[in-house]
């Protein structure tokens, strides 16, 4: 165990001598006759484990000194024991409110002084070791959590890349939908955790396309009614794939309901209004925006004005009017039309 340093601050040289004689065989003792001298030595690098502080001193008294000490984050953790001739309950109560851990009455009794200081420093040492252990264990948990988060991110990203690779016309689609969704979520006031769940859900919203034949996904000619009905099954397929991930329900909702329309005309369940999970309503807008600002086998990329017009027409029918309006504002703020494929 290290040797503790005790700083005695008292304008009485006799009282300081008593402390030195009683404690110097066990502890390293530093002395100061005033608050000014005490703080000067602190600034020079002397950092005590405990301060014995006289209450009544000229210029700065003990209450002034402990106030300055506890106001400085470098020293706030240092325990302070007041020394006083007062036998006054109000003085003790004031001291405890100011952060003192104990009081020792003058004249100093050597045996009582040693016993009090030993008890306080034993407790301080145990608290310090406990805090150190908590910090070590907390950091280990944080490191492990960060590793798991990075791994989860990489898995989600790999799945998103796999989805996009299936359709040669939609490379990067999942990343862009995720980006636009998070932009909308921020405007809605989402927390960091909500934004993270939204990001994951948007990245995986089209995972059900894994179950759609490549010949339909990459067909350049118009789809037949039967082929379109096959495409419309991808939300259900995606929901089936993700439904076992119960820890992040939003991932399921994003895949299952991102083609639902606000007026109930969407699929697969014909949900409408606020009955559609909000995260799916966000992805619906972001997904539609990216579809219109990306090249397809059957058309080129729409202009910003055309995209804005289509989104505006869809407010309240295909799109949640609040979320759609947020996307319109994002478009208006994109002066250089940078948000596209």
UniProtKB/TrEMBL annotation:
Presence of the UniProt keyword Phosphoprotein in the record = yes
Which stretches make up the HD-GYP domain? Answer: 148-341
Residue ranges of every copy of the Response regulatory domain listed in the record: 5-121
For whether the record's keyword set contains Chloroplast, the answer is: no
Q: Which GO terms describe its biological process?
A: phosphorelay signal transduction system
Arranged from A to Z, the UniProt key words for this protein are: Phosphoprotein
Q: Which InterPro entries match?
A: CheY-like_superfamily, Cyclic_di-GMP/3'3'-cGAMP_PDE, HD/PDEase_dom, HD_GYP_dom, Sig_transdc_resp-reg_receiver
Do you know which PANTHER family this protein is assigned to?
CYCLIC DI-GMP PHOSPHODIESTERASE TM_0186-RELATED, LIPOPROTEIN
Q: What is this protein called?
A: Chemotaxis protein CheY
UniProt organism field? Anaerovibrio lipolyticus
């Amino acid at each position: 165990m290290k040797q503790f340093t005790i700083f005695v601050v008292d304008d009485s040289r006799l009282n300081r001598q008593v402390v030195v004689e009683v404690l110097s065989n066990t502890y390293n003792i530093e002395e100061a006759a005033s608050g000014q001298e005490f703080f000067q030595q602190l600034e020079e690098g002397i950092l005590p484990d405990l301060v014995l502080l006289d209450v009544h001193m000229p210029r700065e008294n003990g209450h002034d000194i402990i106030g300055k000490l506890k106001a400085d984050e470098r020293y706030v953790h240092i325990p302070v024991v007041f020394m006083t001739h007062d036998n006054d309950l109000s003085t003790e109560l004031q001291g405890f409110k100011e952060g003192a851990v104990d009081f020792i009455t003058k004249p100093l009794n050597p045996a009582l002084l040693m016993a009090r200081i030993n008890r306080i420093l034993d407790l301080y040492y145990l608290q310090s070791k406990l805090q150190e252990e908590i910090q070590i264990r907390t950091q280990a948990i944080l490191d492990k959590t960060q590793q798991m988060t990075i791994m989860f991110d990489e898995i989600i990203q790999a799945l998103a890349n796999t989805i996009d690779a299936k359709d040669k016309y939609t490379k990067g689609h999942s990343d862009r939908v995720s980006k636009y969704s998070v932009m909308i979520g921020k405007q809605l006031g989402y927390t960091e955790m909500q934004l993270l769940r939204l990001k994951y859900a948007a990245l995986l919203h089209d995972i059900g396309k894994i179950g759609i034949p490549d010949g339909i996904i990459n067909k350049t000619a118009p789809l037949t009614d039967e082929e379109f009905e096959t495409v419309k099954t991808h939300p259900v397929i995606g929901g089936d794939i993700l439904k076992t991930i119960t820890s992040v329900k939003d991932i399921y909702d994003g895949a299952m309901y991102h083609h639902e329309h606000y007026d109930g005309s969407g699929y697969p369940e014909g949900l409408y209004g606020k009955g559609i999970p909000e995260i799916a309503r966000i992805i619906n807008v972001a997904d539609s925006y990216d579809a219109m600002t990306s090249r397809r086998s059957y058309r080129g990329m729409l202009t910003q004005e055309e995209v804005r017009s289509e989104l505006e027409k869809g407010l309240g029918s295909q799109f949640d009017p609040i979320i759609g309006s947020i996307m319109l504002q994002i478009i208006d703020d994109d002066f250089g039309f940078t948000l596209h494929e």
